[in-house]
Amino acid sequence: MKNILPIVTIVLALIVIWYGAAFKMNSTWTYDQAARAGTEVTFSDLLSDTMQQSRPLLPAPHQIASELWNTTVEKKITSKRSMVYQGMITLKTTLLGFVFGIVIGVALATVIVLSRVGRLTLMPWAIISQTIPIVALAPIIVVLSNAVGTGTLMVPKAIIAAYLSFYPVLVSMVKGLTSPDQMQLDLLRTYGARQSDVFWKLRLPSSMPYFFASLKVAVAASFVGAVVAELSTSAISGLGARMLIGSQFGEPMIMWAALFAAAILAGLLIFLVGSFEKAARHLMGGRAL
Amino acid sequence: MKKPVIDAQNVDLTFQTNDGPVHALKNVNLEINKGDFVSFIGPSGCGKTTFLRCIAGLETPTGGRLTVNGMTPEEARKSRAYGYVFQAAGLYPWRTIRGNIQLPLEIMGFPKSEWKGHIDRVLDLVDLRGFGKKFPWQLSGGMQQRASIARALAFDADILLMDEPFGALDEIVRDKLNEELLKLWAATQKTIGFVTHSIPEAVYLSTKIVVMSPRPGRITDVIESTLPPDRPLDIRDSEEFIKIAHRVREGLRAGHDA
């Protein structure tokens, strides 16, 4: 609880700066309107107008908050205008991509650690894969999965999310699976342990702390992947698509509300993964942190 | 005459490195009989740990003959001839103490129904009854090392190989564990190979002290202890003890000068 004070302080400072910036940036429009109408603008007019334009350059925090409220609580969640509806779509993509990413990352790491050939052939490609801009790759993935006939956009979007999220899992798992030291391996040799015992009883459990640490990074990467996929696959639903629509149709409120909904959702995901990590650590005999 | 449990004849081990061959062991001859407590003592690089690892089949000698229970070390390892204790306890942090002791039983394929009996027996031996459900981090360093000894005893091998098991512990804990180790040895009649660089520890524990020296790693002296089997801690102040310790020191010095 003692962490709350610094967080609140920073948030308050940001809000103050935000209001200042909104006032300054939106005032241009107010002045223009006044000049066209030939009227004078008093300071109080200016203040009230910059805080409630319908299409401001920079919406004030309370406008975003109320837009968020309207599009989450007040709208039916079946409505296409509901952020909950859109968020669920992004969440589904994220989770599907996250699961794909974990499976692919763990599988590749296992092959890399257990076989020399795997190490020499797979690792460089895994690294190269991350140097390709996902935005460039996204349309190709969509076209290819359409050609294969996956039907909806869900699969290609999840593939894009997985493309970003497998990498942190892979790197951490390689590190984790190779973390047992020579002494630990020698001990198992003295028992005449088989390779499968070494893997299941030593390497895999040893890698778990690395695995859990990577999950937080991976879920964030998967989320970014899902949003980018929605932005770049001409999707019409999902938070990413809402952001794009907001910007293309000159609806800054929608754009900002979608952005904040995305931030809140990402925060929730990371919190959930963090709680899962804590529980798992406890189950594996870890010290309480 | 009975055959020795561990029999080394002209054992050589040469490592090929980038800087040329390193003679880790040269011409090592040693017989260890059933029930012996043998300490290997010497400065770093004298090959004492390497020799222990050879006995365990973790290294393979490049020359000579080495048998354990009449078999090659490799075969002996596969027939679970020995338990090995390392300098670090190396307990799995994700397993309880019982879980850790159970590890060799799982790997060696002991029937599940026997696990509890084995674990209870060795927990008693190392005086850790009641700590089975604890996780390693909840135990002190000395207790963790006792647990690792219990793990090495769990599958009832006749030989116990210990590589500086108390090297990382402070002197008071070390004294206590030495005393307990002697009791354990008396109770179980195991053959123990024990690597150390502490002279008092070697003299206090052993029936046979093997003094080694480096470059190339070799045996310079083998001392049969004349101390009685029953050894209270204050035996270390006796004349006999000091005499043996002196001879060990001489052996170490001779090796150093050569």
TrEMBL record, chain A:
It is found in: Cell membrane. Residues 87-277 form the ABC transmembrane type-1 domain. Its main location: membrane. GO terms for cellular component: plasma membrane. GO terms for biological process: transmembrane transport. Gene3D superfamilies: MetI-like. The chain crosses the membrane at residues 95-114, 126-148, 210-233, 253-274. It comes from the Bacteria. It is a multi-pass membrane protein. Keywords: Cell membrane, Membrane, Transmembrane, Transmembrane helix, Transport. Pfam families: BPD_transp_1 (PF00528). InterPro entries: MetI-like, MetI-like_sf. Belongs to the binding-protein-dependent transport system permease family. PANTHER family: ABC TRANSPORTER PERMEASE PROTEIN MJ0413-RELATED, ALKANE SULFONATE ABC TRANSPORTER-RELATED, MEMBRANE SUBUNIT. This is Binding-protein-dependent transport systems inner membrane component.
Automatic annotation (TrEMBL), chain B:
SUPFAM superfamilies: P-loop containing nucleoside triphosphate hydrolases (SSF52540). GO terms for molecular function: ATP binding; ATP hydrolysis activity. Transmembrane segments: none annotated. SMART domains: AAA. Belongs to the ABC transporter superfamily. Gene3D superfamilies: P-loop containing nucleotide triphosphate hydrolases. Pfam families: ABC_tran. It comes from Celeribacter baekdonensis B30. It comes from the Bacteria. Residues 8-235 form the ABC transporter domain. This is ABC transporter ATP-binding protein. Keywords: ATP-binding, Nucleotide-binding, Transport.
